[in-house]
Amino acid sequence: MELKAINQTIKQKKEELALFLRPFFSREEARQVALQYTWGLMSKAERKNTWQLAEEVGLQTPYAFQHLLRRGLWQADAIRDRLQMEVLKDKEGGILAIDETGFLKKGKHSAGVARQYSGTAGRIENCQVGVFLSYATSQGHVLIDRELYISEEWFLDEERRARAGIPKEVKFKTKIQLAMLMLQRAFGHGIRPSWVLGDEVYGVYPLRAYLEKECCPYILAVPSNYHVSVDFDRSPVSHFLAEIKPKDWQSLSAGKGAKGERYYHWYRLEVNSDSPEGWTRWLLLRRNMKEPRDVAYYIACCPNNVTLQDMAKAAGSRWTIEECFEASKGEIGLDHYEVRSYTGWYRHMTLCLLALTFLSGLRDAFNLLEKKKKARRLHMKKFLKVRNLI
User: What DSSP character marks residue 330?
Assistant: First the structure.
């Protein structure tokens, strides 16, 4: 890839980012600081805290970045809303996935910090937990929303809340309620996904009922002891496993992985429901082909014409949000922040979402340049062959 083309592409993307940020800052100086911070998140700086980001972009001190995150006058939610509208352009019919990730912390002053389970650590730790929403299409996948989970204990201590800058109007919400809030926003911005996916934390009835009311297809994981009703039999989902005949399992791909197609055994069983007309609620089972005791259970609801292969491929797409977390933490610095306040958390996360989206766009542009270069090479090779020159 030619250096000139690379530099031109980078310049163009930076100009697009500056244009995106312009409406959200009344002063040019503030716009430039936001641009530097977001662009710095996409840099190769080892740590993406305010000190190292300042050094990366050539600032002598981090004070401008600290002011941006803590006290600057701008609305992170407005940027999030605009970002969702941009992501939706020419990318309808994607998949929304809900998941959470933990941010390990020391002390007790960071907003929402508590001893709670962290999927990142795989155990109970002193951490903050963020609930996120991702959007995936064949063109890529990015995070489009974020909410900080704040446990009930925080709402019993007004002084602690005030020190962390948690507004008085913020009330306790469960992770399910936070997920529903983000889905409501996405639907309000015109996002109509082909599926909504989530793990066992989000496979509970209230979220499923909301999605069915919205006529939105979903596949949500449930634990093996979750009860469903089939005709007059109400039993744990694991109970139905023994009733499946070997010939009834279907070997289907859950989509491509690093080593090619990912095949599993799949089976679905209609369960009792009051789903919308023309829709069916299913118990979906996925079994590891090499380890038959490794079985995952899902509750799904979708139009009657959806095939088991469609469901298998959709269920296999939940990895996209996990990859978003990996990319955001490994490349954008999602977990590198050192702010403690409620506002600071939301601002850093929002600019990380923006940086991840623009980094994805930058990679797409580079890939297009590479394809054009290869196409030119192939065209020349054909030209030379026709003339018997090679």
Answer: I
Q: How many angstroms separate the CA atoms of 160 and 295, rounded?
A: 44
pLDDT higher than 70, residue 371: no
Question: What is the H or E stretch that residue 137 is in?
Answer: strand 123-137
Nearest partner of 200 among 209, 208, 192, judged by Cα = 208
Tokens at 159, concatenated: 């002084």
DSSP letter (8 states) at residue 276: P
> Would you state the structure tokens that stand for residue 119, as one six-digit string?
């999927």
Domain parsing of the chain, residue ranges: 75-369
Query: How much of the chain is in helix, strand and coil states, percent to nearest 5?
Result: 45, 25, 30
Whether 214 and 139 have beta carbons less than 8 Å apart is answered as no
Per-residue pLDDT tens digits for 259-298: 889 999 999 999 998 888 899 999 999 999 999 999 999 9
Task: Compute the distance between CA of residue 218 and CA of residue 208 in angstroms, rounded to an integer.
Answer: 8
DSSP-assigned beta bridge partners for residue 329: none
What lies within 8 Å, CB to CB, of 285 at 6+ separation is 237, 240, 241, 244, 266, 267, 268, 269, 295, 296, 297, 298
pLDDT of residue 90: 63
CA distance 297 to 288: 12
Percent of the chain having pLDDT more than 70?
92
Read off φ and ψ for residue 285, nearest 5 degrees: -120, 135
Cβ 8 vs Cβ 55: under 8 Å: no
Amino acid found at 173: K
Say if residues 99 and 321 touch (Cβ distance below 8 Å): yes
Gap between the Cα atoms of 198 and 176, Å rounded: 11
75-369 fold:
Transposase Inhibitor Protein From Tn5; Chain A, domain 1 (3.90.350)
CA angle 225, 197, 238 (to 5 degrees): 20
* Percent above pLDDT 90 for the chain: 81
Q: Could you tell me which residues come within 8 angstroms of residue 185 by beta carbon, excluding any fewer than 6 positions away?
A: 81, 84, 145
